[in-house]
Amino acid sequence: MTKNTSRAQPLDARARNARRRHLRVAMLAAIFSLFALYIAWYEAHGPSTQRNDELPITQARADDASHAVNGAALPATSVGSDLVKRGEYLARVGDCVACHTADKARPFAGGLPINTPFGTIVTPNITPDPDTGIGQWSDADFLRAMHEGIGKGGERLYPAFPYAEYTKVTDQDVLAIRAYLNTLTPIHYAPPGNSLNFPFNQRWLMVFWNLFNFTEGRFVPDPKQSAELNRGAYLVQGLAHCEECHTPRNFTQGLKSSARFSGAVQAGWHAYNITSDKNSGVGNWSDDELVSYLSTGAAPGRANAAGPMAEVVTDSTQYLTREDLRSIVAYLRAVPPISGGESRPRDQWGNPADDVTALRGTAVHAVNGAQLFVANCASCHGWTGQGVGASAPGAYPSLIHNSAAGASDANNLAMVILYGVTRTTKQADVLMPAFANQLTDDQVAAITNYVTKQFGNPQSTVTADQVGILRTQQ
């Protein structure tokens, strides 16, 4: 009897544990089912109009579509023209053309593939074509897409479209953009479909992404701050969606709110820290230098825009009014500093080189960074690395006190060598040739490491294997 009882006790314990596990699973399933039913009910019966908590935003002079001059009402045609002009300006602020143009012969017709960890998303046609564009969208459809991330057919949009920022934009500004898009030439073009892995191709799952990463609602000015700073916050947090590149992401690919504007890597390029930290960010830049960088792509002695940022300057920020640029700078000054661990600002490194003297008459048999620099780079940047043209708009920039050479990682420098620089502004056409087809990974790594050691941060290096990976990122 004793023997049988001793065997029964463990069996009873295992049975009780099994029942507990089944009960826990059943409870979790019930909770999930109730949550799913709530989401389904809310989607079907929730409020059709979301809260509109927008307050007046100080408008820049150039994009203020005033409906009267000296107290006299303007003709309807003039009002419409002003609205379209304002919408064009705001579309520039949002840099809509960058993502919605794959072929420059078909502006705003979409088709640009955007690679994500979950697959490839292809941007849609936003010209007023009725069949392949947004010609049949109502103003309410357009507002819903911008503010809630929901398409005309009720489908959830993917956050490659930054509705998490656009939700802050006022109805008036969204409708001004809509008015401008209506004036574009309709282009009949249906971009390819997305290529996303299961389950990420299930749009309804965006409900859960939104729960963690999205808060619908318009921008509310801070009454304790100046009108200028509030205008800057409205632009940076909303249409300009600067966080999309300059903020690292969490495991769901949403923005990491605890590290806003502290820098992130996008397609191989490092979008630098733009907080007010004096070493890692732009805290030691003057207001004029920041304005110059945004309007021309260059702040001599600091940085020269390349890669995606050069495109932002070309397509967007160079067109902003002086008032709006100053407002953006005022807001960036107020962003709390976040240290990236740098010991000194990335634009405060480097000394002129004299390696060319040592190379004269010397046979070089291996991959040599100094030799490769003199052969490929010195004709524009000077063999001392001090550049040509000083601070002129079309100058060949100095590599000394240059943020790409002084950064804590060498990604951007290597990417510039691989893919060059193309930046067109009202001041100059800037072009640096790409060397991806002329130089091997070993050679690109050797030049990069020579430049960082001589002119920049000597602790920043790159390997040939890393260059090979960067080749695939563009």
Would you mind describing this structure in some detail?
One of its GO terms (cellular component) is plasma membrane. It comes from Paraburkholderia phytofirmans (strain DSM 17436 / LMG 22146 / PsJN) (Burkholderia phytofirmans). It is found in: Cell membrane. The structure is a single chain. With 474 residues, this protein is mainly α. Among the domains are: 52-62 and 75-219; 355-471, Cytochrome Bc1 Complex, Chain D, domain 2 (Orthogonal Bundle), CATH 1.10.760. Helices cover 42% and strands 7% of the residues. The protein contains 19 helices and eleven strands. The chain has helices at residues 2-45, 76-94, 96-99, 139-148, 163-166, 171-182, 206-213, 227-237, 243-246, 287-296, 307-315, 322-334, 355-359, 369-376, 378-381, 403-406, 411-419, 441-455, 464-471; strands at residues 68-69, 72-73, 113-116, 119-122, 195-196, 264-266, 269-271, 298-299, 303-304, 421-424, 429-432. Strands 3-4-5 form a three-stranded antiparallel sheet, with no helix packed on it. It has a two-stranded antiparallel ribbon with strand order 1-2. A hairpin with a 2-residue loop joins strand 3 (113-116) and strand 4 (119-122). Helix 17 packs across helix 18 (441-455) and helix 18 packs across helix 19. The protein is globular, with a radius of gyration of 27 Å. It starts with a helix and ends with a helix. The model is unreliable at 1-9 and 40-76 (pLDDT under 50).
